[in-house]
Design brief:
Elements (H helix, E strand, L loop, with lengths): L7 H24 L4 H7 L8 H25 L1 H20 L4 H29 L2 H32 L4 H4 L1 H15 L13 H21 L6 H22 L15 H31 L4 H7 L1 H39 L10 H27 L4 H33 L7 H20 L1 H4 L17
Helix pairs in contact: 1-5, 1-6, 1-8, 3-4, 3-5, 3-9, 3-15, 4-5, 4-8, 6-12, 6-13, 9-10, 9-15, 11-13, 11-14, 11-15, 11-16, 13-14, 13-16, 15-16
Length: 469
């Protein structure tokens, strides 16, 4: 791909453009959770079976990340980035005017197509447009809105639902998206690859098909109430697609993700550790607002404000991540942190109507801190051992696994919650279902510690941490 030569004004505006796109994406990922019960009432759905709205977005993002770089090389970064913001904005409008659950899910998919392309293409342009001496500074600036989005998202979503309507959590994207489209057309450099790069279409279909089928199978146990035979069939077909992909990838020149990546032990442990450890943390933003509103009677605004400690705890622990990992090493940090995170998630089973608010806030802030340490250590150990030649492919696979594991976490939580909730259950019965779900999710998260035992105890800290979540 060609390198951009920026004029002074574009060099100043471009980081703001990518940062705003990142903010829109992270805000949308958290603002929805506190609105689910209100959306369920308006759409005549069970609030405990609304996870499809979240899963549709996360899974679509995971599917399209591998294609984002190829699309930017083939069609140009300006066209793809502009189209991404346009699709995200159009999807937001479609979500706002949806009058059925199925229509809302389809609209979320449209929104996710745009969301999947915004950040990878924006990051690629920054990489090509700025000298290496400026890259870390610019990327740090871009990452800041990504930390603000989860901080204000649940609270803003709760207030909008309580004092306006859930439609506004999507409508607020429209003016920002319009400005973003104009700015992208004006300031985004149009970079293309000089050579035609062949895309692994068959591999993309096999890998994507596996993700979709396995997620739908888990979703079928929860929201869709599929017969167990159909769930098992979908699981087996998904596993077969995944096996076919890896067998094929080992025999072609440029696969979507090369199996050779897994020859690096730290990468293999990090990828599988991410997949299983994030099942619990991915389920939390879905489960906690539901627990607070459906089982404990919180208002949407109260539930949103209660979620603030999760994001605050994550931000406060960031400066301590590198010193702690330098002192203790990846292996000790990840084993201990994984067990602690699973225990904290499982201990949410003790929350009930008599739990003091202050204790709940402290509990959530501790989860936010431990969660943030987990993300930082896992992301860094996954990429630290890769060569420069494999770094881009490895980072892309890590991004896919992060989105996939979070969607599987929500699907698993929905399936467990649905399984533990008897038809027509109310009051204490619903609270008991939440408690059992937290115990199971926490236990599943703790199992990932067995994977981190496989790390080299002498492995040292990378030059810089990978904070992206």
């Amino acid at each position: 791909m060609q390198t951009a030569v920026l004029d002074a004004r574009t060099a100043r505006v471009l980081p703001w453009l990518v940062a705003i796109a990142f903010f829109m994406q992270t805000l949308d990922g958290t603002i929805l959770n506190t609105a689910l019960p209100a959306m369920a009432r308006d759409l005549a759905e069970d609030p405990l079976r609304m996870q499809g709205v979240i899963i549709a977005y996360m899974l679509t993002v995971a599917l399209l990340i591998p294609a984002s770089g190829w699309m930017a090389d083939r069609f140009g970064t300006r066209r793809i980035f502009f189209s991404a913001i346009l699709l995200f904005t159009l999807g937001s409008l479609l979500c706002a005017i949806s009058d059925s659950f199925n229509q809302l899910v389809m609209s979320r998919i449209v929104q996710a197509v745009g969301g999947a392309l915004m950040l990878p293409v924006g990051r690629l342009v920054i990489l090509r447009a700025y000298p290496r001496s400026e890259f870390v500074r610019v990327m740090t600036f871009i990452a800041l809105p990504g930390m603000v989005g989860p901080l204000i998202g649940p609270t803003l979503g709760g207030w909008l639902v309580e004092y306006a309507s859930w439609h506004w959590i999507f409508l607020i994207n429209l003016p920002v998206g319009l400005i973003g489209c104009i700015a992208a057309f004006r300031f985004m450099p149009d970079l293309k690859s000089a050579e035609r790069i062949r895309f692994d279409t068959v591999g993309f279909l096999l890998f994507g098909g596996a993700m979709v089928l396995i997620t739908i199978a888990l979703e079928g146990l929860g929201e869709m109430h599929m017969p167990h035979a159909r769930v098992l069939l979908l699981m087996m077909i998904g596993a077969a697609c995944l096996a076919a992909y890896w067998l094929r990838a080992g025999h072609i020149e440029k696969p979507l993700f090369s199996p050779a990546l897994f020859h690096t032990r730290s990468f293999a442990v990090g990828i599988f550790g991410n997949l299983f450890a994030r099942l619990g943390s991915g389920a939390l933003p879905f489960l906690v607002p539901l627990l607070l509103q459906v089982a404990l009677g919180y208002s949407p605004a109260q539930a949103g404000m209660t979620m603030i400690p999760l994001a605050l705890g994550a931000m406060l622990i960031k400066p301590l991540a590198k010193p702690l990992i330098d002192r203790l090493g990846y292996r000790r940090i990840l084993i201990g942190n994984t067990l602690l995170l699973g225990s904290l998630i499982a201990s949410l089973a003790t929350i009930d109507a008599h739990t003091p608010t202050a204790l709940l806030l402290v509990h959530l802030s501790l989860i936010g801190m431990v969660n943030s340490m987990q993300f930082t250590a896992m992301n860094t150990v996954t990429l630290v051992g890769l060569s420069n030649r494999n770094a881009s492919s490895g980072n892309s696979l890590l991004s896919v696994v992060v989105q996939l594991s979070m969607s599987l976490g929500v699907a698993s939580a929905g399936a467990l919650l649905g399984g533990f909730t008897a038809p027509g259950a109310e009051g204490e019965a619903v609270l008991d279902a939440f408690h059992l779900t937290f115990l199971c999710i926490g236990g599943m998260s703790m199992l990932a510690a067995s994977l981190f035992f496989q790390l080299d105890s002498k492995q040292t800290m990378a030059a810089r941490l990978i904070d992206e979540e």
